[in-house]
Amino acid sequence: MFNFKSAAFKKSGLDPDSLTDGRLLELLVEEPRYFRRPLVVIDGRLTAGTNAKKLGAELGF
After folding, report:
1. How far apart are CA 34 and CA 52, in angstroms?
2. pTM of the model
3. What are the tens digits of pLDDT across the range 2-51?
4. Chain centroid, CA 54 distance in Å
5. Are 2 and 35 in contact (CB under 8 A)?
6. Cβ within 8 Å of residue 24, ≥6 positions away
7. Secondary structure class of 4 (helix, strand, coil)
8. How many alpha carbons fall within 13 Å on the CB side of residue 9?
9. Bridge partner list, 48
10. What SS3 class is residue 1?
11. Going by C-beta distance under 8 Å and a sequence separation of 6 or more, which residues neighbour residue 35?
12. What is the pLDDT of residue 34?
């Protein structure tokens, strides 16, 4: 659910390979723009991102 491609993350200068899961969670709390959006729950499964093809497949289109 972490968006390493976001402008906010790129500006941070952080190295994604050096971040632990715990640190990633801390960063999400500190900076909500690090979440991949939209977050969609379909049949109890969480799907993130704007990939229309993936979302369409999840929704049965």
Report:
1. 20
2. 0.69
3. 999 999 999 999 999 999 999 999 999 999 999 988 888 888 988 887 78
4. 15
5. yes
6. 2
7. coil
8. 16
9. 39
10. coil
11. 1, 2, 3, 28, 48
12. 95
Phi-psi region of 59 (alpha: psi -120 to 50; beta: other; left: phi over 0): alpha
Two tokens at 39? 């977050």
Return the half-sphere exposure (C-beta side, CA atoms, 13 A cut-off) of residue 5.
4
DSSP secondary structure string for all residues of 13-61: T--GGG--HHHHHHHHHH-GGGB-S-EEEETTEEEES--HHHHHHHHT-
| pLDDT at site 47 | 85
